[in-house]
Write a structure and sequence with these properties.
This protein is 54% helix and 20% strand. The protein is of the alpha+beta class and 172 residues long.
């Protein structure tokens, strides 16, 4: 960990570099490829048409000491919020869960500046957000396709609370 003048000097260098838009955008791209996540939560919600909802979320997690990085990302993307991660007071999350912001800000940015390691998840995420925006979730068959796409993301859904079959069989 840097102390005193070294930390201040490094922070000033980073701030100076990131003020240059071109560098900032590629910095964000690399940072998200390493520390970001495109995910779609699948939640059981009895009050909805089919009993389930898809909730797309873009997030970048970072230790609270690196809040400036998250502020730079938020400033460039012009959306979202920075919050403390639930149950982890030392961790902050830059979070965008508003579908309009995802469609108008996040997706165009990552279409223009292509990810390397997370591009496959981004493409599936984009398909789901666009499907929701186009109201595909109102058709049971198209909703099933969106659910299946969500299960293909992030290690094929290995960390999901529900199994794919459980969700598909639970559709009203």
């Amino acid at each position: 960990m840097l102390h005193g003048g070294d930390a201040m000097e490094k922070e000033q260098e980073l701030s100076k570099l990131l003020r240059k838009k071109r560098y900032l955008r590629f910095y964000i791209l690399g940072f998200v490829d390493a520390e970001g996540c495109f995910s779609v939560s699948i939640k059981n919600q009895e009050t909805t048409r089919f009993g389930w909802v898809l909730d797309p979320i873009f997030q970048v997690t970072q230790h609270k000491n690196n809040k400036k990085v998250l502020e730079h990302i938020k400033g460039e993307l012009r959306c979202g919020r920075i919050i403390e991660k639930s149950g982890q007071s030392d961790t902050l999350v830059y979070l965008v869960d508003n579908r309009r912001q995802l469609k108008e800000k996040i997706i165009p940015f990552f279409e223009k500046y292509r990810l390397v390691t997370k591009d496959a998840d981004f493409q599936k995420f984009k398909k789901i957000v666009e499907g929701l925006e186009n109201k595909e979730h109102q058709s049971k068959e198209k909703f099933k396709e969106l659910i299946k796409t969500a299960f293909e993301m992030n290690l094929e859904g290995k960390q999901r609370r529900y199994k794919l079959e459980e969700v598909l069989n639970g559709l009203k």
